[in-house]
Specification:
The complex is a heterodimer of chains A (110) and B (115).
Chain A lengths: L3 E2 L5 E4 L4 E7 L6 E7 L6 E6 L3 E5 L2 E6 L4 E6 L8 E8 L5 E3 L3 E6 L1
Parallel strand pairs in A: 2-11
Antiparallel strand pairs in A: 1-3, 3-8, 4-5, 4-9, 6-7, 7-8, 9-10, 9-11
Chain B lengths: L4 E3 L2 E4 L5 E6 L6 E7 L6 E7 L2 E4 L8 E4 L6 E5 L8 E8 L8 E3 L3 E5 L1
Parallel strand pairs in B: 2-11
Antiparallel strand pairs in B: 1-3, 3-8, 4-5, 4-9, 5-6, 7-8, 9-10, 9-11
The chains are: A mainly beta (110), B mainly beta (115).
Chain lengths: 110, 115
Amino acid sequence: QKEVEQNSGPLSVPEGAIASLNCTYSDRGSQSFFWYRQYSGKSPELIMFIYSNGDKEDGRFTAQLNKASQYVSLLIRDSQPSDSATYLCAVNGNTDKLIFGTGTRLQVFP
Amino acid sequence: GAGVSQTPSNKVTEKGKYVELRCDPISGHTALYWYRQSLGQGPEFLIYFQGTGAADDSGLPNDRFFAVRPEGSVSTLKIQRTERGDSAVYLCASSLFGGENTEAFFGQGTRLTVV
């Protein structure tokens, strides 16, 4: 079992819709959770982080964390073509290193 | 500096040669991470420094790979006897303290091609 799992996609959504990206993790001791956006040929860019169970909203982005289910998600409201990218979930556990999933490719079509 | 800086941005080397990749973290950041990313994959953890010491080097694939951070700032990733399978983008990230609840920021990466 991989430490951090994501569906590779692509996830295709129409412009203006809500995109829902999901991630599960195996280390129950994980405490910090991050979402990075990576455009093709570029390095990952931090867009959200969440440390507590529940929802955290920042503009069009909402991160959701459920530690009991070992599940973290990212919702993007009013999706735009410029949101088309690969979204990487990263988890920081007891060992202090960030472990990444393989990423979900999001395509927003006009 | 304003962000994490990596040099060179591109490196082409012949199989069997030695290469050094440099990372200059955000000023004041004590934690520094090295990752390797192949096409279509997420970043693969290599090594994590807290200050001058390697807090976790469990991701280094074999003894051809070595990294140093002698003064707790700039880090160098060293690869000996390069192989074609070492071709990837090598990413460096830094965070203020490391550990839990600290966000890591990436440099633009070094694309290594071994021919």
